[in-house]
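Researcher: Next sequence.
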Amino acid sequence: MGRAAGKICGVAAIVPAMVLMTERRMSPKQPEAEMPVLDVHMFPCLSDNYGVLVHDPVSGATASIDAPDAAAIEAAVAETGWGLSHILVTHHHWDHIGAVPALKERFGCRVVGAGNDARRIDGIDETVADGDEFHLGAAALKVIAVPGHTLGHIAWWSPDGAVAFVGDTLLPWAAAASSRVLRK
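Model: Next structure:
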C-alpha cells in the first residue's frame, strides 16, 4: 500500500483491520517535522477479508494488525521481506485472532491486545487500555477503546503517521462506537 505518512490518503475499504488514513494539516509557516514513517501493506486473506502489516523501517519492527489467516500473513511477510515482531489485536473474534498460535510459533512474535479482552485471546503477551501508548519501533501508536462491536474492542492510532487501524468499528452496526476514533 505504501507509506502512511504525509498528505491525503482517504479511507480504504471497510474490512477487518481497516485502515483509516487522514489528511495531515500544517500551518503554511510551519515546516513539516520529521516523523516516524510507517510502511503499510494490505493483502487479501480468508475468503473475503484483508490483512494489514505495519512496518517501522528504522527499527525493522513489523506488526500484523490482527491475525486472521496464518498462510496469508506468512505470504505477505515473505513478499515484503519484513519479518513479524508483533500482532496487534483489535478484538477477540475468530477472524481476528485465529492465526495467533501458528504465527507465534513460526515467528516468536509478541501479541498485544486489550486488557479487558485478555482472557479471550490465547497467547497474549502484553495488555493495553484506552489512552495507553505502544511503540512499534520508533513509531508511537495510541490505544483508543471503541466498544460497540465487542466490549473489549480497541483501535490503534498513529497520530504522527496519520493512520488508524480500527478493526470492525466502522461496520454499519458499529458506527456509533467508531465516532470516537474520528473525533480524537
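Model: The mean pLDDT is 78. The longest strand covers residues 39-45.
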